[in-house]
Amino acid sequence: MATLYNRIQGRNLDRLSALSDGIFAVAMTLLVLDIHLPAAQSIHSQSELLHGLATLTPQWVVYLMSFLTLGIFWAGQQTQLNHIAEGSRDLTWIHLCFLFSITLLPLSTRLLGEFMLYPAAVLLYWANLLLAGAMLFWSWKHASSHGLIRPDTPPEVQAAICRRIGIAQSLYAAGAALCFYRTWLSVAVIVLVQLNYAGAPAIRRHRGAGSSS
């Protein structure tokens, strides 16, 4: 009976996708709620307000970085689910582990925003990214080895998904390693990596359209 149940559990990917959308939406909302505006009783002029907002710059930077992070991981997961024919019990739990790493991101973001000068905060944030990337990589490898990929998925697409995860994680690791030199430089590099993955495809499409017109 248990073996039969394990075979039939988690076949429908729609519920997994819906759960993922909800968790990503909540995580994205929690990011901005962790930005604490200056206390009203401490502000007595416009210059004090502007100064108070300026002191929040590290929090805004890590908010932008983490929002991009969530967007990239959400797009990556949806890309995988779009190329998987059906789920399985094991695949469901791999994605639940992936979503667990996503729920941790608001916490690691707040830690980084408040303690950006400490390498430990950067490394813990990077560990969060590493965990999420490892879960996505494991998901795709599991789906490939268990025949869950759609038959019409070209081999180059399968290779591209693994390659994208590997390159991204390598760039994150390189950025995180810079925290032992300058933590702000480490954060800047990770932000640039995120901007590249979020904006580069659109830029390439725009250039391609321009060259063909």
Number of strands: 0
Characterize the biggest β-sheet: none
Summed over residues and divided by their number, the pLDDT gives a mean of 84
Distance between the termini: 62 Å
- Compute the gyration radius: what is it? 20 Å
Helical fraction equals over 70%
- Domain tally: 1
Describe, in short, the structure shown.
This protein is an all-alpha fold and 213 residues long. Helices cover 79% and strands 0% of the residues.
Describe the structure.
Helices cover 79% and strands 0% of the residues. The chain has 213 residues and is mostly helical. It has one domain. The N and C termini lie far apart (62 Å). The model is unreliable at 202-213 (pLDDT under 50).
Main attributes?
disordered C terminus; mainly alpha; 8 helices; 213 residues; single chain
Helix-strand layout with pairing:
Elements: H1 2-8, H2 13-33, H3 46-54, H4 57-82, H5 89-114, H6 119-145, H7 155-177, H8 183-212
Helix pairs in contact: 2-4, 2-5, 4-5, 4-6, 4-8, 5-6, 6-7, 7-8
